[in-house]
Amino acid sequence: MHQRAPDPSLPNTVLSKDIPINPSKGTGMRLFLPRCALDSPSSKKLPLVVYFHGGGFILCGPRNNLLHEFCLDIAGELPAVVASVGYRLAPEHRLPAAYDDAVEALHIIAASSEEWLVQYADLNTCYLIGSSAGANVAYHVGLRLAESHDSLAPLSIRGLILHQPFFGGTKRTESELREVNDPMLPVGVTDLMWELALSAGANQDHEYCNPTVNGGSKVLDKIRALGWRYLVTGCRGDPLVDRQKGGREGDGGGGKDGDINSVEDLLVGANGGGDTDLVKETATTEGGKEEMSEVVGKEGKGQKVQVGQHWADKEGNLAGEKKTA
């Protein structure tokens, strides 16, 4: 157990361990397993949640204290086996390094003999979740793997949850102009993050940054054909909220059949509360409640599912409670 010792008397105790992905790259993941799985080894296997952290592609990792605590909550509350994936950071490793590392991690998971994955995780029920830059990673990994889905067998992706995805573009949106000097994530900071993350000379209309260029990716049609769930959440008061709407609208309107939801339907908690509170509220609103429970494979109405994180600096110090990058 990392960060805090488990109390064996508590039924919701969550255990964790680190396993390598690619030692030559210095990448690894942290696995989280609810104690209930150990106590009931004959019970049904748990869904697998693969989580990608935020940090503007330049900060944080699975060992970050806040990210660790967040993944404990996911694993214990769903319950689920959680794999918090680390990826190489910019500017030393610019995009698509993070996407490459994330795809590699999923292939490692699919072929792993790790006991927690083999005995307790239902690889056929896998969800990709990301916050901010991690949501950008989940989005692009989803696009890649939708075209080669069979290569992951026996792992099968069932859905994507993009929480306040970190997107950009050369033309300022209304929300960016309105919140240009936001005290927690000013637009100048996001510009710098993209300058450090994208390849030298690329601008923010690069496909890694702007999902709406050229009408959006046609691979979203493949995602729908595969039956994946696709959920985008956002927050009023976030300078990037219009980008998050664009991340949905880049599908060319394909969300009308209900398998891709508009971020506008899930906006709650204007300018207040942490990301965890945001998603809790989302899970108790009509539409959001059903989607959150369905996407993560939970039965029943009103299940509160936490898929948010607090923004922290590289040392893990809390810097705010509304937005991630």
TrEMBL record:
Pfam families cross-referenced by the UniProt entry: Abhydrolase_3
Organism: Punica granatum
Domain Alpha/beta hydrolase fold-3: residue ranges: 49-245
GO-annotated molecular function: hydrolase activity
Descriptive protein name: Alpha/beta hydrolase fold-3 domain-containing protein
Protein family according to the UniProt entry: Belongs to the 'GDXG' lipolytic enzyme family.
Region spans: Disordered: 240-325
Basic and acidic residues biased stretches: 240-259, 287-302, 311-325
